[in-house]
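Priority: medium. Attachment 1 of 2:
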């Protein structure tokens, strides 16, 4: 069977990957992989089972066996279900992001998630959002995007996003946490955050969401991925 077309969208936290990936997937009518949600879920499931936060093997086992479903909520938004429990809000906190970034540095967790991520590649196509989609998980993707924005803009975007979701956050604390998380993601030895050599780098600082979506759509059109 021919492999379905794949677009990867990687980049640091707050670069707009999630929003852009979802919009491109909707426009193309393709599937979406939010790989960050998987790392968030591993950390959350570990906490729910009162696992020692340093238990690498325990977390790797969870990564390989956890029962996860990505659904559409009644309001049309996303619904993430872990072992029958809706955890959509729980996994979106910055605390969950920090937990994800810790377990994501462990090779055993990353390899336990590989097949699960690759299974998302189904016809008519896949938009994959993460840190290592174009470098490790889908190295032969048809189009690779690396999305960045200035640290100040990324912190502000995350701040607005969390505020909109009703979280009580402070901008200076969030900026510090994001810098720390980026630093850990970019310097880890396995699958560090970096653009694939053949990635199209888009700096979204000062661009609107629609401008970034249009740019990705245009790049996909150049590669005949859609009309
Ligand atoms: O994208 P999101 O903020 O949900 O990702 C949470 C964390 O999961 C990241 O900070 C990163 O450490 C990890 N991650 C990863 N590889 C991916 C996606 C996320 O290491 N493909």
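Attachment 2 of 2:
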């Amino acid at each position: 069977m021919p492999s379905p077309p794949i677009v990867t969208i990687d980049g640091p936290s707050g670069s707009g990957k999630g929003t852009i990936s979802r919009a491109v997937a909707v426009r193309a009518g393709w599937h979406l992989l939010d790989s960050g949600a998987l790392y968030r879920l591993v950390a959350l499931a570990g906490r729910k089972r009162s696992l020692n936060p340093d238990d690498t093997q325990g977390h790797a086992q969870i990564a390989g066996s956890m029962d996860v479903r990505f659904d559409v909520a009644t309001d049309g938004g996303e619904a993430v279900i872990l072992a029958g429990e809706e955890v959509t809000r729980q996994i979106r906190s910055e605390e969950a992001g920090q937990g994800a970034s810790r377990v994501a540095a462990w090779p055993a967790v990353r390899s336990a998630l590989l097949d699960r991520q690759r299974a998302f590649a189904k016809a008519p196509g896949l938009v994959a959002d993460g840190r290592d989609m174009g470098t490790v998980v889908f190295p032969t993707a048809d189009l690779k995007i690396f999305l960045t924005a200035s640290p100040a803009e990324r912190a502000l975007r995350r701040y607005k996003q969390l505020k909109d979701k009703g979280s009580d956050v402070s901008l200076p604390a969030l900026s510090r946490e994001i810098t720390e998380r980026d630093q850990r993601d970019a310097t880890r030895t396995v699958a560090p955050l970096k653009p694939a050599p053949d990635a199209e780098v888009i700096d979204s600082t000062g661009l609107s969401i629609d401008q970034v979506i249009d740019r990705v759509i245009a790049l996909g059109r150049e590669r005949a991925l859609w009309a």
